[in-house]
Amino acid sequence: MKKFLLIVLMLSIVAGVATVWASVIGTPHDLAPEPCAMCHTPHSGTGQYPLWNRTQATVTYAMYSSLTFDMGPADPNGPRTPSSLCLVCHNGVASELVNYPGPCSDADGAYDLQIAGCADLSNDLRDDHPISFNYSNSIDTDNNGFPGAIQWGTSTTRLGIPAVAASVNYPLYGNDTFANTNNTWFECATCHSVHNLASYPGQGDYQVYFLRADNTGSAMCLDCHRNR
Hints:
By secondary structure, this protein is α+β, with helices and mostly antiparallel strands. Helices cover 16% and strands 7% of the residues.
């Protein structure tokens, strides 16, 4: 019995370490000699959070809309942060670094980026899951069973969508205060973790990278669309 418990403990520790040390290294976001610099800089960034290091010409987006989009329309001004930051790379338009790594370094082509293929969502978001809309389960005329927002974590006032099947809560965005009614915006990072913080079966194979949880059996989908 003791030997069995020891094996379980060791497996738990290994799983915990794997989760804690998950990062962009070795993932599709590991894109340059200094992968962190692809998006961030400690100095001279754009002023957008968090220490944002990429710049791009203004892009106009076609936002998702449908007759069953109860919580729509999406923000008419286009994607909000952090979705707008994700789309700097994933809209298929070329982007460049503001501040290159190294002391007073010049432009380095290794950090220029224009994504193509399946990761290119383009600036037409009408065929993608809606983002930049104010999540409110009270607006659910199609009876999807959307749950009400709760406190996302014990150490933050951010709100989130409570999970059941996937065992993880999904953060909503805004001013990060309960009192602010604009603190319930659904964004790309509600379902995706850009730093690959979760570990789950089939990651990079039959499941994509950067999900917040294992979506086997559509667990993540059913955490919101509970009556489907």
